[in-house]
Design brief:
Rossmann fold, about 300 residues, alpha/beta, single chain, five-stranded antiparallel sheet, seven-stranded parallel sheet, Hypothetical Protein Yjia, Chain: A,domain 2, 2 domains
Amino acid sequence: MISSFVITGFLGAGKTTFMLKAVKEHFKDKKVAVIVNEIGDVGVDGKILQNVYSNVLELSEGCICCTLQVEFEKGVYEILEKYNPDFLFVETSGASNPFPIMLSLQNIGSLLEGVVCVVDAKNFHNYKSNETFKYQIGSSNIIVINKIDLVSEKELENIEDEIKVIKKEYNLRDFLTSEEFFKDFKIYKSKYGQMDEDLFKHIYPIRDLPNLPLNLAGVNHLEESHIGEFVVFLEKEISYDELEQKLKNIPKNIYRIKGIVRLKDFQTPMVVNYVFGYTELSPIEKYDGKSFLVFIGENIKKENVFVL
């Protein structure tokens, strides 16, 4: 029986970085397989992970929990047969509820070791009212507050208090008995991307999942949250200054941009991560594809957003 972890969290929370560090630091002597789910036709996180692991399966064009459950389960079987890994990590889309994924993993015979929700401390106030985010908190037994170096101690204390309130209200309950499922859960804090050594040492294996409410099983989170996406391919190299200026003028309803671009005077392609107005660039090796940016937000339109 293969052990698995589900990594969830809202758009831009830092799930991929967290997963990379977790695997490198805590599972370096194990054979690990990764499944990453992204919104849209072009995936960024999968390309980043493929620079580290050869056994990465990328699912696009929707959320695992909404439209790709059959493809997801087929993909898991394919990985198990081809690689025979010791552990399976599943990174969900930031717009998805992890609970149906948990059910699928249990259905195929995986021992679900933990559901980790990564929370972006810096941008918590921007999405704390989002229903999908609240379900992500409620469906997790491990919560990691990320980027705590970017907030004050008082802000961090308030974030932790609010997470506990959300957890109490949205905690998974058995549909028949109303009993709370994750009575024991852990909250960890991550500074400068560093994880607590205890994080993967005190996991509560998830053996028997509760009965699933029908309205939760079939919900389409993309439609309910009005979250949409579009891709822009860049046919020519642009300068860093041009990119920076374009990103400064992005409409507020676009709160997540990610992609891979070639910049003038840069030797390697750069991964672009834009979250609620804050941009980070990092180099990526072994990428031969076109430059592109994926825009994600609510009620968004492609026209005149990023014209070069």
